[in-house]
């Protein structure tokens, strides 16, 4: 959660898990002023996996970053587009 809005990470985790997507960790980002949702991946992950998550969430590939995180891939929630991303994840539940 990079928005500072309490409970948003938990809300997203629940939606992902209901859609059958495993969530390894939910928590706050290093700061709470991310403007847009973005995808991070590490040496433990792959660019392809990051791109798949970005596509699923409707996040531009321009917002994918390789970083030194402890997880293979992470979604950082941002203030300006988290509602759209959540809507896309929830739409997966309707299709099931």
Textual characterization of the structure:
The protein has 96 residues and is α+β, with helices and mostly antiparallel strands. The chain has three helices and three strands, in the order H-E-H-E-E-H. The protein has helices spanning 8-18, 47-57, 82-95; strands at 38-41, 64-66, 73-76. Strands 2-1-3 form a three-stranded mixed β-sheet, covered by helices on one side. Helix 1 (8-18) packs parallel to helix 3. The longest helix is centred in the last third of the chain and has 14 residues, at 82-95. The radius of gyration is 12 Å and the shape is globular. The N and C termini lie far apart (26 Å).
Structural descriptors:
three-stranded mixed beta sheet, alpha+beta, 3 helices, 96 residues, globular, 3 strands, 38% helix
Report the uncertain regions: none
Oligomer: single chain
Structural class: alpha+beta
What percent strand? 5-15%
The strand order across the widest sheet is 2-1-3
The main pleated sheet reads as: 3 strands, mixed
Radius of gyration from CA coordinates: 12 Å
Shape: globular
How far apart the termini lie comes to 26 Å
List the helices and strands and how they pair.
Blueprint: H1 8-18, E1 38-41, H2 47-57, E2 64-66, E3 73-76, H3 82-95
Parallel strand pairs: 1-2
Antiparallel strand pairs: 1-3
Helix pairs in contact: 1-3
What's the quick description here?
By secondary structure, this protein is α+β, with helices and mostly antiparallel strands. It has three helices and three strands.
